[in-house]
């Protein structure tokens, strides 16, 4: 539960009017109005004098609330208000990791890790073969190790500008925000191989030979007159038919 306290210094004999509102980006909405709770708080909130007790808080309850109290006196209407920010802390859930199963050396490869339930937002740590990867900074051991990747703990990305065979391994990511236990995704293997240049050259040569053979076959057929004989035979048949008529 969460208690939003709102105290005032009006005298007990005054007639008080109490309202609670929630301030959101899309506007201001009533939470407590005319002696009743509205919206999501209906049925799970109660008044504590002029404050509010919310039971079974959820992430949706996070936000800025405003307590407004007006009082009638002989001098006229008096108004007081207070603003309270409620932050509901949520432990992270299991992140979703995207790791390519294979890659070619020298290419750009990006691994991603994300979870959206944690509050405050989670930070991410990548591991390779069970060892935490260092975050590349201007100085320190990460720079001395000549690291070829960039790990962004805020966004959860692990970027290889030029991946190498040494980057082959089993990767997983861990999400944590200081609330509850950290969560990690399942281990996924990325295999980095050299580009098979000899295989590509052999395939190109094979296709070129096939095309050359096809061209020679057509040239040989034309030279022997296969296409010409077929045309002459057709013309002869037409001539005979005309003579018979």
From TrEMBL:
Gene Ontology, cellular component aspect: bicellular tight junction; cell surface; plasma membrane; protein complex involved in cell adhesion
InterPro entries according to UniProt: Ig-like_dom, Ig-like_dom_sf, Ig-like_fold, Ig_sub, Ig_sub2, Ig_V-set, JAM2
Membrane topology: Single-pass type I membrane protein
Listed Pfam families: Ig_3, V-set
Keyword Transcription regulation included in the entry's annotation: no
GO biological processes: leukocyte cell-cell adhesion
PANTHER family hit by this protein: JUNCTIONAL ADHESION MOLECULE B
Full protein name: Junctional adhesion molecule B
